[in-house]
Amino acid sequence: MTRYTEIPVLKNSGSSLPKVDFNQLEFGKYMSDHMLVARYADGRWQDAEIVPFGPIPMMPTILALHYGQSVFEGMKAFRMKDGKISIFRIRKHYERLQRTLHRMCMPDIPFELFEEGLKQLVKTDAQWVPDQEGSSLYIRPLVFATEERFGVKISDEYLLIIMSGPVPPFYPRPLRVKVEDRYSRAAKGGTGAAKCAGNYGGAFYASKLAKEEGFDQVLWTDLSPELRIEESGTMNVFFLIGGRLITPPLSETILEGVTRDSILEICKMEGIPVEERSITAGEITEAHASGTLTEAFGAGTAAVTAPICSIGIRGRIIDLPAYSESSLCNRLQKIMNAMKKGEQPDVFSWNTIVS
Ligand code: COI
To answer: How far apart are the CA of 270 and the centre of ligand 1, in A?
Structure first.
């Protein structure tokens, strides 16, 4: 059995660190100096290695490019108040990755490879973990099919690459979202609950149209006459109505967000009433009219929490009360960040400390 406790590291001799201004970060613009690479061939994951971040050789025939066997995760590492580094909820991300791999007919990844790979990569690039307020090291595990042929088949070969880069908060200001009533992100029986590349590419068109109309993101629905809300852009979504926090229940058309789960756990701990239930565009409109809709926000790894300031529903715009320090969205974000940074006890054991 392959052990992953000491993954060999080929050091990058030309660090890009001096080129990065950590006070002027942009999401996804800068990559840390190293990446972890592991190959799947002959029915098993081969030894992993950490190498300088850079181009990878590939043939135009690799199956991922043609038939979309490509999946990923989005995770974060944080600089804690004592200077140590923590990686947030490795197990939860791993479980989702396993479900995604299964749905896309791709091989399981041993937990030890995933966990040790993350820890050793983050340790190698420890200097890349920002300590600026709201910033973090975003980690992107990516798995894709590398068998070379264009016959339509499940690939027998794959590559796992874990890369990372320092990121600022994802959305700089509250969002204007459009309830989508023409295009869908996911269909019943489809891959909506999997974090596969195609779900993101397939969502671009509706997002582009929404942006042309002046919105920041779409609020995906099931396209039923009631327009049941599913998620927003690349995040899960929450509505505060009459003091109760409502989020659509998980289903095969909704991605199980790790931040969504963290928010639900924190709400339980704080005694904040939560309902995981279906919510329609009509209920949002009525709650706004009666003054009970006080907040809406998205939640995701990249975004953490992202307040929504207005919602477009079939040509009508609903403006929400202004986001403030006392917003529930802000309170939840603060608690979650304090846990990640070790400023508040890690009562759920979500942090993996990188020594
Ligand atoms: C995340 O929130 O981590 C995501 O994966 C969404 C997006 C950046 C692709």
So the answer is: 27
